[in-house]
Design brief:
The structure is a homodimer.
Chain A lengths: L6 E8 L3 E10 L3 E11 L13 H20 L4 E6 L1 H5 L3 H12 L4 E2 L2 H13 L7 E6 L4 E7 L2 E8 L3 H8 L7 H16 L11 E5 L1 H13 L11 E3 H13 L2 H4 L13 H15 L3 E4 L4 H10 L11 H12 L4 H17 L1 H4 L3 H13 L11 H12 L6 H12 L17 H20 L9 E6 L3 E7 L5 H10 L1 H8 L2 E6 L22
Parallel strand pairs in A: 1-4, 4-5, 6-9, 9-11, 13-14
Antiparallel strand pairs in A: 1-2, 2-3, 6-7, 7-8, 10-11, 12-13
Helix pairs in contact in A: 4-11, 5-10, 6-10, 7-10, 8-10, 13-15, 13-18, 15-17, 15-18, 16-17, 17-18, 18-19, 18-20
């Protein structure tokens, strides 16, 4: 991404438990990346009464906002988008607080009502998780939002005061919570969820979860199963896993809860009620799992600007955009990557009757073709390994962990080595190794045919018999470099993948290749 | 590095054993990086007689050059710098070959005479290994060059026909080589080295080794000791280790030699004579070790252009430049990095009587300050870990492995965590952990004082008693963000490092900080 033309959006989110500042560097509609983040536990709702937020709580909030504002000024944020949620919204002294923040700090907090907060949650989630019909749930510190998604759009939203901190403040006095306290919370959760009448009509629909509490539950599970990817994009949290965690939260006192792998220690005191709310919602929907969205209300606010020019601020194709965004963030060579994708796609299509794959596999190949050279930003040597690392670290919103793992491995094996799934053996199976080998072979051929990085090869024709697979290159001139590279570096893998001996030749005659001079032939190591 | 203004230099090196093409992307005098590399074993000297190179050997060379030329055309190299060394230089039909290459391929090979080859070796080495007086030795396939370095400049060079392939061709018929064959080689090595009369006067001087044979010997050793860095920059190869390898080469037949970790399998048949030559030269100089240069003749040719504007094409300060080159390659934020370096340096100076360190430690701190944020090119989350990885992967020419490891760890611990040397425990010792902790603490304070990335803090004053270390910030306005960050994220490590409780305050009064509002204070987790 060309940083000189990028815009810096600072999103300030004053929540009931946590104040956050995230800075996104973005070229609207093109690409974005997180470039800075600060988080402070403010516990704004702590000690809240009918008269509103307590003085110490407001002082903590005020102090954080003052610091965030100065931080934005120092780091030259172009646009500040400040929001406040349930604590400020519900406090009797909320308007006074907002006025004072505007006057003394110069930040105009947009206080989201429950429906608006649910809307931004939905926008955040829809930009990460492809979904037609379903529910988005955001368990915050103060409130819980549920959003009704119909035909891929936000349809309705509701907010209930079932946030993790709100319930803890109201019901939990002992550590760990007593059975009576838990019973009291369960009753309250039931009562408030009953008020969201349309929730009943969504039985069996997809459930997407976001917010700190749910992310933490997912991290606990990802630690438990040794999830091999660096992010939670595409992660699914099972009901069984949440109940296992609830059991732990009920048994362990605070200090031991803080030691649970994956759980933020500053959230250990309020995690139990959040987990209970999630299970209660799953009960109502009658679903066994919740898909995790790393995006939430802040990203919703951000995407409203990023996709301002669209009729609705939602990526039309999450998977396509997440591949592009990654490629653009790492300054991919667009024409080279596109041409490798084109050539790989041409081979994939022609070989269909040999491999039997269809659109889902083609999409993985296309993605890997665009991403295969990412690692060059780290350095030329071993750049295929760096590509794998970068895909693994960033993750690919919209793709399942299995699909992301295959794409990461395809970038790894676009160059050198025998495809091997052992890095992700928890996600992949034996059939995936065959798939990986075939797609990697196709990608490696395409890369060799684009070794000059100049789109010299117009097309490739694949024909075969029972024993021989032949690929004929179409180009204006004799493609000496490409034949040499394909024979040396891709033929063997192609032979392994399609169990035929492999031949490369060319439409254009070898005009420049004098008789008697040694022609390229494979068999020796070449690239280093 | 801004690639749009960068120049692409393609260096073609037609050696006796190997033909190589390397592509360097460079802004002369500013930064460079390797962006492509192709290598082909041509064995140009194989079967050479008094009449010159054999027809098959020339055909292999011709074929490679033709491919390299087309490759350069495709990938839009701006400048092609083609050289040929001993095989072409010594062959009776060398001039005919060169003419034909120029006429039919359009490449004007510069055939280096022995002294010129030794000159480029020296330029390559001097741009990587700081050296005043010493010898550079390059063991190639055909010839061996020795360069005499006086007062940091190339003084004289000589070439003898003791290359690994040349000796193998002439003396070795059996596998593994017999005692008689080894004796014959030893006699020939002695005879030819005697001809370089000035070598005797260099007894005890530093020896730097380069070229494929020596790099391979170093890689074998680095595998043997599990060297934890990603490169051989700063690596020292001991005489004992070379003799251990020679013993292996003498005992094992080719197939087993090819399995030696670190040895290129296509070099296993010619590695023994090269190792013998190196030991013979060490004997003459009476030295026990050879410093490895990853740069060689190709880089010498490249640096002649890169430093064309200097009186001599040698980096005035290898260490300083290698830090800058790395920072520039990863688009560091120059002003932020410089200001962190400045503030860290100010603290280091003032705290001298507490830590007792001097210029060598200061240099490590300065380097880490420039490199601390490298990992941001990968992504914001965990960028301190990425910084360590990037330093480890690239290495830092001019620094010893121990120094490089400390710099890598300083970038790691500029943010979060308790400094720990276990990643490099083979290189570091207990005292280094104390050094690391102190320098990391200073760097972390400097980073927090530059958290706004805008040079808001003009200076810092450090004063202390037996129990308290106080740091007073100088700035135009009250530095709320910096105090907050320093107290939260750097105070604890500073306390550990200097065994005093730590206080931060400010010259500028907290004008904007209303009475009764909570001031920043450390103790809670903050950044995520």
């Amino acid at each position: 991404m060309d940083t000189s033309s990028a815009h810096r959006f600072a999103i300030i989110d004053l929540g009931s438990n946590t104040a956050r500042l995230v800075v996104m560097q973005a070229i609207p509609g093109y690409a974005y990346r997180l470039v800075d983040q600060v988080r402070e536990v403010v516990r704004l709702r702590q000690g809240m009464t009918d008269e509103g937020m307590s003085e110490p709580a407001m002082a903590r909030g005020f102090s954080s906002l003052r610091l965030f504002k100065r931080f934005c000024d120092s780091t030259a944020a172009d646009t500040i988008l400040p929001i406040a949620t349930s604590a400020v919204r519900e406090a009797a002294n909320g308007p006074v607080f907002v006025d004072r923040v505007a006057r003394e700090i110069g930040i105009s907090l947009q206080v989201l009502d429950g429906e608006r907060e649910a809307y931004y949650d939905a926008i955040g989630a829809l930009n990460e998780v492809p979904m037609k019909e379903g529910i988005v749930v955001d368990i915050g510190g103060g409130s819980v939002q549920v959003s009704d998604i119909c035909e891929g759009s936000f349809h309705a939203g509701a907010s209930v005061t079932l946030g993790a901190l709100a319930l803890t403040e109201r019901f939990v006095k002992n550590d760990p919570a007593t059975d009576d306290e838990i019973k009291g919370m369960a009753t309250e959760i039931r009562r408030q969820l009953d008020s969201v009448t349309w929730l009943r009509e969504k039985r069996g629909d997809m459930l997407v979860g976001l917010g700190g509490t749910i992310r933490n539950l997912a991290r606990i599970e990802s630690e438990r199963v040794h999830h091999p990817l660096g992010t939670l994009h595409g992660f699914t949290l099972s009901r069984d896993s949440i109940e296992e965690s609830i059991q732990l939260f009920r048994e362990l006192p605070l200090q031991d809860r803080q030691g649970i792998p994956g759980l933020n220690s500053d959230r250990a005191d309020i995690i139990l009620p959040g987990a209970m709310v999630l299970v209660a919602i799953m009960d109502r929907l009658d679903v066994d799992s919740v898909a995790i969205s790393e995006n939430g209300v802040r990203e919703g606010v951000f995407f409203e600007r990023f996709w301002q020019h669209l009729s609705e601020p939602v990526i039309p194709d999450v998977r396509r955009f997440s591949v592009l965004n990654l490629a653009r963030n790492y300054d991919y060579e667009e024409q080279h990557a596109n041409h490798v994708r084109f050539l790989a796609g041409r081979l994939f299509e022609q070989l269909t009757s040999l491999h039997g794959y269809g659109l889902p596999e083609r999409e993985l190949l296309d993605a890997a073709a665009l991403l295969h050279d990412l690692g060059r930003i780290v350095g030329y040597n071993s750049h295929h390994r760096h590509s794998q690392t970068l895909v693994e670290y960033n993750g690919l919103p919209g793709f399942s962990p299995r699909e992301s793992a295959i794409i990461a491995l395809l970038t790894r094996y676009h160059r050198k080595g025998n495809p091997d799934i052992s890095d992700y053996e928890l996600l992949l199976e034996r059939d995936d190794e065959i798939l990986l080998t075939r797609l990697a072979a196709i990608l490696r051929v395409a890369e060799c045919l684009e070794r000059g990085r100049n789109a010299d090869i117009d097309d490739v024709i694949a024909t075969w018999s029972d024993n021989v697979l032949r690929m004929t290159l179409i180009s204006d001139e004799y493609p000496a470099v490409e034949l040499w590279q394909a024979e040396r570096n891709a033929a063997q893998l192609m032979e392994d993948a399609f169990t035929r001996s492999v031949r490369f030749d060319s439409f254009a005659p070898p005009l420049e290749w004098p008789e008697g001079e040694q022609r390229p032939s494979h068999g020796l190591p070449l690239d280093q």
